[in-house]
Design goal:
4 copies of one chain form a homotetramer.
Chain A lengths: L3 E6 L4 H11 L4 E7 L8 H4 L10 E2 L7 E4 L5 H11 L3 E4 L10 H7 L6 H6 L1 E2 L2 H8 L4 E3 L3 H15 L6 E8 L14 H4 L4 E2 L8 H11 L6 E8 L6 E8 L6 H11 L6 E3 L15 E7 L5 E8 L3 H16 L15
Parallel strand pairs in A: 1-2, 1-4, 2-3, 4-5, 5-7, 6-7, 8-10, 12-13
Antiparallel strand pairs in A: 8-11, 9-10, 11-14, 13-14
Helix pairs in contact in A: 1-11, 7-9
């Protein structure tokens, strides 16, 4: 039986290349086509030596595939996705272009008029822990952002249970690969090394996505979320610390049990008993979550962490693909974290 | 005229050695004695090659000095300080042993009975921006912790002005040197590199100090502070992001102006117009502060940063010494940050 | 059919824990027992969270296995290996205890009298690229050191072909994990970060191993090797630059072709066309080799790199095990490097 | 008495900005003008926050100064220098444009025809340890490259004494700031972090400078030098390991004494008794040198280290300026290294 053919649009960014790594090691699908404008015509292994075993040439246009991943920048991705959709190709879109339900959000946060509001309605938000059943039949999956994945997974159990007031602080620390492969002064090694900083305090583009999803869990009530992302000097990893007032007094153990129950059976969520380390998920598709209660103020504190390029991007995309194709959800994602 | 003689008890930790570096380059005092039990008898420059120009032997007991810095661990520092005090030596204590006003705090947070509650009353909390006038005549200065310095400076203007509700979240990111020079698995390079984590969620020892000082600014009302410290992979630097509800609606510019007014003339505080980078204070005694208002929730967000070993420890100790000795406050602390 | 049972003695060092990671993902053997004195009785996943999926308790003594890896420190490993040998268990010894052919080397370099010179004769040096045929039937394999693997693979083709004078300089740069998991001041993050240094200039213990193996390739003539290891601030990776005079004038392309021919078909050796990056082998079992000729002096320069914990230790041990068990050599070692 | 006015052409690269930091803290000269094309019109402190205390606007053209530093890229620097020279301004050129004595070298190594061979003859190579007497009256000083400074200082004593054969291997490890402030994929944080690599094996532009200076010390005999630079993941620092055959057998102590004698009284050279760490010179103008003899092969090994932006660039430029102006050589360069 021939394997499902899959392709990657824009393989040359960090998400694209991480997808290629994961798909090349995936036993149930075959990576048959990868595109990238600037590198078109080159062998994949010449641009990325760690992929030298993948015998593919980077193309200008995607070949015939059954399912495609778009790792294009936002706005550009939407048109790629629409074209694929017309051809009947199922798509996992890694960009932000189909994550928001309201077209107005794209004007407000991304400065463009969304070309296809009807596809927004069709797209399924690709967080399997919340939308597993819809993903099986999805024709278009909007793969969540890295920060939203860490934040929503950290808060979903208590939001859904109505246990916290909708006054939420999300403080996230990201490795530099989250800024992408395009060079800039801020990601120049001598600038980023031995430095920590906050950014986007006026509002990061991942914020509407977080509010939307938490709002759905609140059954439509939009929480007041303050989200501050930070860059810290490491390549991979996001550590998120979320704070919120508990609606009624709870002990840490009660909260911990609630989380364990909520995520029971989830292959990639691990509710842990002490604050997690990004190093413990390096290269894996895991998200570790540590919920606790501040003993003095009674506030909920949740620390979550994941590898921004795996569970925060390419790994989650593969997880979504597995669900779309009816494959075991963990196929190709079994790799343990590489430590130390 | 002979210079004031100063000494360092326990020169072999990171604070002690940083003090030695600063004092050796200080034109108005003379470093004449340094102690350290394990290294007693060795030349300072043999243990710390960057200090080879300082011609001192590490002693078991402190020689005759006019003013001493104690960089001993907490609990042990108290007895050193008491002995010095009896000899009439003025002291800057870098440990936590005289930071709390209430002796009960030491039992609760440090597991020992404080040996000298009367000295607690005598000690001045060494944050010059708040206590400059008392420091001139102080015989005992309790040098603040690194986290409290960044947190209190970030919040003092709005707390004093009564502009925020006493519901405060402080999320701090520290470089690894904050953990000291004593080796441990958590600070072993392969464990700490490419890792971010939160710790002490049950309550960090710097918390009572933060609450005490903010409470004094609130005129006795103790705020509900949640403080979560994090370790990020860099050697030096603390970046603190503080969150609090504004008591009444304010614009970012109003807040910014309030901060500029509050800190006007302060030699080591710079209220900045964009989120600061720890790299921009590396090796200097500066604290950069960026206050802003979250446009969607109206919450106050303040980002502050400093070098944990300078303004967060040894530099601030020198600043305190300058005030105690009637020297210009910036003497020996003029060095610009080393960038990149 | 039941799988071959394998065990790890001293799983708690970096080589041991990396072995556990690789063996847990190896489809053809079953990891059934792991030991570690200090952690005995604990779950493997409690000590190493990234291994939480491996359902094993760390034991004080190794259970019944068909093949064992000893990751004990040198000297202690020898007695473990001898005991296993008596029980008929095949062993891959990751320590240095069976790498040298001459017992005298242990007195000279390791300060102990080797307890079993006859086993030294029996042991096969576990560099598959040189000793593949002997490894299939080996009962005891001495897994090479990380530096020797990079150095010998870099030089074997020209030494065997008699193309260089035996005047060899080997300058190696290693990540800090090569120093092991035991904490020390030199590997304390604030000391090792932003630092580069050379060490062991009086003679590193990996030198006799390098000389022995190059000497065998020279058909007994011992080359004059200067080997200087360096520590650079990264967790994983060895980059080795080797220099030697060419016995007769050669062009870079000739040398490159010689290397390609020598390593043709080798699954884990890649002769590359430009200087390799340690990042391109991170987490994989590859060794990249770039041979060239200095155009001005005519000297041979060879740059090689590998992941010190994989091809430099645990991965090579698994490769040796595969050969011993008649499995495909790459089983369990197919993982691509994790980039970036 | 008014201070000597000095200026910096192209302040916006890492050498320029480091010069500004050092000159701003230099008590005997006044930094009055800085240029930079892309940033012209901006306040220096707006581009470089750590320099906010320097009240200068970046200009398009240099103002009136007594002495200028050119931190322009090579080729462009030559014309700047020639124009300054005509105006009677003394110049320290940090570019390579006046380092080579032979104009032909510029065609061969830098691909341009040198516009002023007569100035090449006039320029003094700015290595004070070798050319101190000529520097006092120099009108044009060619500030050495970072690699050549570390390499020449490591080898000068034995080359001048005729103690080594002219068969020299120089293996250097540099932090990433050596690649400058211009962004590139190779210096993008996620690419450079956790990576080590060699580059320029076909011949680095610093090689002719090294050969020229060692040749002059050999009294005209050009040594056969192989020089391989490497990038390692740190911001600052060069560690150089040099290897050469001793012309006659020597002990390590003899060599060490020779070095101590050669560098006796040098304010910035320290001959040390164990392999030095780049961390011990971070931010200082020191060069540490450790010469030894490989006990097995009798080869000389010398390890040297320095901060590439200080002794390797801006600090050495200030040292040269001090000599040109008749100031104490260490003025403005007294800062101890910042450790850890």
């Amino acid at each position: 039986m021939s394997k499902t053919k899959v392709g990657i649009i824009n393989v040359t960014g960090y998400t694209g290349v991480e997808l290629a790594r994961l798909l090349a090691q995936h036993g149930e699908v075959e990576l048959t086509s990868v595109t990238g404008r600037s590198a078109a015509g080159k062998k994949l292994g010449d641009v990325f030596p760690h992929l030298a075993d993948i015998n593919l040439v980077i193309e200008a246009e995607l070949g015939e595939v059954d399912l495609a991943f778009s790792a294009m920048p936002h706005r550009e991705s939407a048109s790629e996705v629409m074209a694929l959709f017309k051809r009947g190709v199922r798509v996992v879109d890694i960009s932000a272009d189909f994550r928001l339900k309201e077209a107005a959000g794209y004007r407000q946060w991304y400065n463009f008029t969304h070309p296809s509001p009807q596809l927004l309605a069709e797209a399924v938000y690709g967080l399997p822990e919340l939308y597993r059943s819809q993903l099986a039949s999805a024709r278009l999956v909007a793969n969540p952002g890295c920060y939203p994945t860490a934040a929503i997974l950290a808060l979903a159990p208590v939001v859904k249970a109505g246990l916290i007031e909708p006054e939420i602080i999300i403080d996230s620390k990201s490795g530099i690969s989250g800024a992408g492969r395009t060079v800039s002064l801020g990601t120049h090694y001598p600038e980023a090394n031995e430095d920590a900083t906050a950014y986007a305090l006026e509002g990061h583009r991942h914020l509407p996505e977080i509010i939307q999803e938490l709002g759905l869990l609140y059954q439509g009530r939009l929480p007041a979320v303050t989200f501050v992302p930070h860059l810290v000097p490491m390549t991979r990893g996001i550590l998120t610390t979320a704070y919120a007032p508990l609606a009624s007094s709870k002990k840490g153990e009660e909260i911990n049990k609630l989380y364990r129950d909520f995520y029971r059976g989830e292959p990639f969520i691990r509710v842990v008993a002490s604050p997690p380390h990004t190093k413990h998920v390096w290269g894996s598709n895991l998200c570790l979550i540590y919920p606790t209660v501040d003993p003095r103020t009674g506030r909920l504190i949740v620390v979550s962490c994941l590898d921004n390029l795996v569970k925060g991007a390419a790994g989650q995309a593969v997880q979504n693909m597995n669900l779309m194709l009816g494959l075991p959800e963990t196929t190709g994602l079994e790799a343990l974290a590489v430590y130390p």
